[in-house]
Design a protein that fits this description.
The chain has 413 residues and is an alpha+beta fold. Helix content is 54%, strand content 19%.
């Protein structure tokens, strides 16, 4: 949770920093472009005003001026705001007050040149310059008006587009950085949990192996002694006492199997590897499960599959454990056992139709000694996963909709 918060904060700071940097650079560049455009328009206007002299209606000189400087308009205004000469030939008409700034025209007639934005056309701001035009006597008799539009202001438009692209790039970069940080944090949490689980499992395995070795010898002595007593007193032993000895031997056998489970959990006993057919293994495990649980019916679906290399007895133990859990989950009815080959592995799924496994139990389901069943040891699934991993495969509980639980084994082909 803390890592996710840091990732979000890092993303926010990265985005804010990137946007502030982008906006600062844009403001600086925009100011520089404005100065250059103003100087360019002022230079064109002042130099033209020195050469024009008196208005010449019908002349092409203003059209040339407009074309050479990528302007949208060029015309001469008289003191009464009448167009004395126009680049497009519309002289003699009253100037459009929506385009012309009368105050700046008045100042130009007084000898003051100016350049500034005058009006907007949609998203485009049109800059206009007003420059006094003097006659031979030095008096101002007209005002040269120049309008700079789309072509003249193209650098400013390009810069605005670059700003938008830079902002979008900053946002996308910050989002990508945040996603990367969150993914890294999630991977680190998963690695931490995996390392913790591995360390815990290793400690439990060492303890289990030690306990198993310590118990096996006393169990052997108890078993041998009981069998010897039973053999010596077989003919004179009352039936009730004989049944009692049988119960003792049964409990000794149960303890022996439990120590075998401990050894499977705590040591790497060699695997008797050989090529084997998964379909045959599934059929054998299904028959054994149905015999051990009369109310259970295992539906096997396994066609022709490529062989896998493994220990048939150990893999049969894994399937027996999963089928026994399924039988305990639903008591009776069908259990589905499917096997198929894909992507270089054989997948085996065991699906029961019981109540399923609670979400809070899923994370610890394969931990040694964790069990939700009364009287369970919590070793079956831990040993089953360990055996699958020793075969180069895996055992997992799938998160699938519907009732019941689905366990999946993968074994390399």
């Amino acid at each position: 949770m803390r890592g996710a918060v840091f990732a979000i904060l890092g993303t926010a700071f990265g985005l804010a920093g990137g946007l502030l940097t982008t906006l600062f650079l844009f403001a600086s560049a925009n100011a520089a472009i404005d100065r250059v455009l103003d100087e360019r328009l002022r230079g064109a206007g002042e130099s033209a005003a020195l050469l024009l002299g008196r208005p010449q209606p019908g002349s092409r000189r203003l059209a040339e001026l407009m074309r050479n400087n990528a302007l949208d308009g060029a015309y001469l205004l008289g003191p009464d705001l009448v167009i004395a000469e126009d680049a497009v030939g519309n002289s003699g008409a009253k100037a459009d007050l929506l385009r012309v700034d009368p105050e700046r025209v008045r100042r130009a007639l007084a000898g003051e040149a100016s350049v500034a934005s005058t009006y907007d056309v949609g998203p485009l701001s049109v800059a206009a310059g007003y420059f006094p035009v003097r006659g031979p006597d030095g008096a101002v008799h007209a005002v040269l008006a120049l309008e700079a539009g789309r072509a003249f202001l193209k650098p400013r438009t390009d810069l605005a587009r670059a700003r938008t692209a830079a902002i979008l790039l900053s946002v996308l970069s910050a989002i990508a950085l945040g996603l990367l940080a969150m993914r890294w944090n999630s991977a680190e949490r998963a690695r931490g949990k995996q390392a913790e689980r591995a360390a815990r499992s290793e400690a439990v395995a060492r303890m289990a192996a030690m306990v198993a070795h310590e118990i096996r010898n006393p169990l052997g002595v108890i078993r041998g002694t009981v069998e010897l007593m039973r053999e010596r007193a077989r003919r004179g032993l009352p039936p009730r006492d004989d049944e009692g000895l049988s119960d003792v031997l049964a409990e000794v056998e149960r303890m022996r199997r439990l120590t075998e489970d401990f050894l499977d959990l705590g040591s790497e006993r060699p695997l008797a590897r050989a090529p084997l057919q998964v379909a045959e293994l599934a059929q054998e495990a299904a028959r054994a499960a149905e015999a051990a649980h009369p109310g259970l019916r295992v539906r096997v679906e396994a066609g022709q599959l490529p062989p896998v290399e493994g220990d048939a007895g150990r893999l049969r133990q894994v399937l027996a454990n999963l089928l026994a859990n399924a039988a305990q989950a639903q008591r009776e009815g069908p259990v589905d056992l499917r096997a198929w080959a894909t992507d270089g592995v054989v997948r085996i799924q065991v699906r029961d139709h019981g109540l399923g496994i609670e979400k809070e139990h899923r994370a610890r389901l394969f931990d040694p000694f964790f069990t939700t069943k009364s009287g369970g040891t919590g070793l079956g699934l831990a040993i089953a996963r360990r055996l699958c991993e020793r075969h180069g495969g895996s055992l997992a509980l799938l998160d699938e909709p519907g009732p019941g639980a689905v366990f999946e084994i993968t074994l390399p082909i």
